[in-house]
Amino acid sequence: ATEIRLASRPTGRPTPDNFSIVDTEVPDAGPGEVLVRNQFISVDPYMRGRMSAAKSYVAPFEVGKVMQGGAVGEVLESTVDSVRPGDTVVHQYGWRSHAVLAADKVSKVDPGVVPVSTYLGVLGMTGLTAYAGLLDVAKFQAGDVVFVSGAAGAVGSMVGQLAKLKGASRVVGSAGSTEKVKHLTDDLGFDAAFNYKDGPVAEQLEAAAPDGIDVYFDNVGGEHLEAAIAQANLHARFAICGMISIYNATEPPAAPRNMMQIVGKRLTIRGFLVGDHYDLHGQFVSEVAPLVRDGKLRYEETVVEGLRNAPQAFLDLLDGANTGKMLVKL
Ligand code: NDP
What we know:
The protein has helices at about 45-50, 125-135, 155-165, 180-185, 200-210, 220-230, 260-265, 280-295, 310-320, and strands spanning about 1-5, 20-25, 35-40, 70-80, 90, 100, 105-110, 145-150, 170-175, 190-195, 215-220, 230-240, 270, 300-305, 325-330. The protein is of the alpha/beta class. The chain folds into two domains: about 1-120 and about 300-330, Medium-chain alcohol dehydrogenases, catalytic domain (Quinone Oxidoreductase, Chain A, domain 1), CATH 3.90.180.10; about 125-275, Rossmann fold (3-Layer(aba) Sandwich). α2 crosses α3 and α5 (about 200-210) crosses α6 (about 220-230). InterPro entries: ADH-like_C, ADH_N_2, ER, GroES-like_sf, MDR_fam, NAD(P)-bd_dom_sf. It comes from Amycolatopsis acidicola.
């Protein structure tokens, strides 16, 4: 077995030295436990926060200990009746080839209908984040103009497509490369998209959404958030999902500088965590799984092969190497 441990805490941008790759014995399942061979593990932006010691909404990873995160795999051994060898399960013991954990901490999924990797992305945590954030947090309504940042990523690509499918009058996305911008408009049906590296976000957003925006789904923070406040219509709603532009920052962000507009425009700006929205999980799966199956909702995956490449996959995710969900295949 192999596992990835946190070797040291990063300052600013993480490096491969912050991780160690350790070969271990395959563990046995004890009473009430299962042994899972992981097939895919998820690397996610929030893990950058867990590498730091700062208090946050999830406990920091411990230095010298194996890291954690979403994973999907096949049960090899079980000591309980409810989960049997051969079952496919989703759980939180990623960053390792083999996981032993309490049987009540795994969720069985059906490997026959869709690829198992989708349970970490479009039909998993990032999918539910997009669904709950757009519909429940931002209170999306047909006719809204929607702006989403990080639009070519796992969450953002789904937000834009869902808004379109549900009758948005205009969907605008931003992303960090020409190819990603083209993907948004040509493949995913966005009405307009821009590369935030090409020029000031405020100017590019104004050109892409000249009549203003009613919903902003924020994955990025900083300059994007400032631009969205500037372009917001009266009573616009913001779902604040993440702020990846500042995850590696060592200084407080310079933007937004225009927060007083929140008052005059009567904006609703609401942060949220997907973990609070699992009440919507059943509704989410029954609505989104058929859209995925029928090809009405597209999902991309950027798959890196080999557990030993997981640290690099995570570093590349922070640099924008992925289109859609970043995954590691074991
Ligand atoms: P993505 O698939 O979107 O991958 C991260 C992307 O962020 C990269 O591909 C890169 O794309 C972009 N990025 C990196 N640095 C910057 C920067 N400085 N400015 C703008 N964009 C940048 O990841 P996820 O879909 O998993 O997550 C998206 C966001 O949602 C993150 O902020 C994450 O923390 C948050 N999140 C929040 C949850 C919650 O419960 N609130 C749950 C899940 C995710 P590009 O090439 O376009 O720069």
